């Protein structure tokens, strides 16, 4: 029931919300299943659609989960390796500030990247399954439980997400996009609707997700 992407993408149907395009702090996460680990595959991207040097990306590069930020000639990245094929993994990136960012694989963090890169400008596109800039880095594989927060998740949040707890139970008030990608690709919060560039294909599986214990991760409106 997760989405199977190969040769198409999901792109914002209108202008992304300010919470997504203002840069750090920003966090992105998704469950990912890939058939191979060659090359660069962009999972989630917020970018200037008319340029190749203004973006915030979460990608797979060979067997690394990789975070990339670029503002003109200034750029930086963080990555963590050993992603295996044909199994579900939880991937995330946290742009905590312009001098602090980390990538996560199954709740385990990369080393913190502390290079100074000010927030990219002209961010006008959000894409799932491709780099939203003019670079071409198409994703091939399955994606589920895609979520973007306009805040910085901490290590405890990422461990919780990797254990199978729903993103809807983590910092709910900061969520600017969420879609479980279970026979439906729309943003459940309605802030950033997306549309496919071609016919959507659905896989026959999905990672098991739980809402967790309300006393630990209570959404602001109470029960879901």
Topology:
Layout: E1 3-6, E2 10-12, H1 18-21, E3 26-33, E4 40-47, E5 54-61, E6 64-71, E7 74-80, E8 89-97, E9 100-105, E10 108-109, E11 125-128, E12 140-149, H2 155-162, E13 175-179, E14 194-196, E15 201-202
Antiparallel strand pairs: 1-12, 1-15, 2-11, 2-14, 3-8, 3-12, 4-5, 4-11, 5-6, 6-7, 8-9, 9-10, 12-13
Can you walk through the features of this model?
The chain is mainly beta and 224 residues long. The chain has one domain: Jelly Rolls (Sandwich), CATH 2.60.120.200. The protein has helices at residues 18-21, 155-162, and strands spanning 3-6, 10-12, 26-33, 40-47, 54-61, 64-71, 74-80, 89-97, 100-105, 108-109, 125-128, 140-149, 175-179, 194-196, 201-202. The strands form two sheets. Strands 1, 3, 8, 9, 10, 12, 13 and 15 form an eight-stranded antiparallel sheet that branches. It has a seven-stranded antiparallel sheet with strand order 7-6-5-4-11-2-14, with no helix packed on it. β6 and β7 form a beta hairpin.
Q: Major sheet: size, sense and barrel closure? A: 8 strands, antiparallel
Shape: globular
Radius of gyration based on Cα positions: 16 Å
Overall average pLDDT: 93
Helix content: under 10%
- Could you tell me the strand content as a percent range? 35-45%
CATH hierarchy: architecture = Sandwich
Cα-to-Cα separation, first versus last residue: 21 Å
Tell me the series of helices and strands, N- to C-terminal: EEHEEEEEEEEEEHEEE
Structural domain count:
1
CATH fold node name: Jelly Rolls
Q: In terms of structural class, how would the helical and strand content be classed?
A: mainly beta
Top CATH class: Mainly Beta
The number of helical elements comes to: 2
Low-confidence blocks of residues: 213-224
Count the E strands.
15
């Amino acid at each position: 029931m997760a989405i199977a992407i190969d040769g198409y993408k999901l792109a914002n149907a209108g202008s992304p919300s300010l919470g997504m395009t203002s840069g750090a702090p920003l966090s992105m996460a998704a469950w990912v299943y890939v058939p191979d680990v060659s090359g660069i595959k962009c999972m989630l991207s917020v970018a200037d659609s008319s340029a190749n040097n203004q973006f915030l990306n979460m990608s797979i590069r060979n067997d690394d989960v990789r975070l990339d930020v670029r503002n003109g000639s200034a750029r930086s990245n963080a990555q963590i390796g050993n992603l295996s094929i044909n199994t579900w993994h939880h991937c995330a990136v946290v742009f905590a500030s312009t001098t602090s960012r980390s990538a996560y694989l199954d709740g385990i963090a990369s080393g913190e990247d502390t290079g100074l890169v000010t927030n990219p400008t002209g961010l006008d596109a959000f894409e799932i399954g491709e780099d939203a800039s003019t670079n071409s880095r198409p994703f091939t594989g399955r994606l589920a439980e895609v979520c973007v927060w306009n805040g910085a998740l901490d290590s405890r949040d990422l461990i919780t997400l990797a254990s199978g707890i729903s993103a809807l139970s983590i910092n709910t008030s900061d969520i600017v996009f969420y879609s479980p990608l279970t026979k439906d690709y729309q943003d459940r919060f309605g802030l950033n609707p997306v549309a496919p560039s071609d016919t959507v294909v659905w896989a026959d599986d999905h990672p098991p997700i739980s809402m967790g214990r309300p006393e630990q991760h209570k959404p602001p409106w109470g029960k879901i």
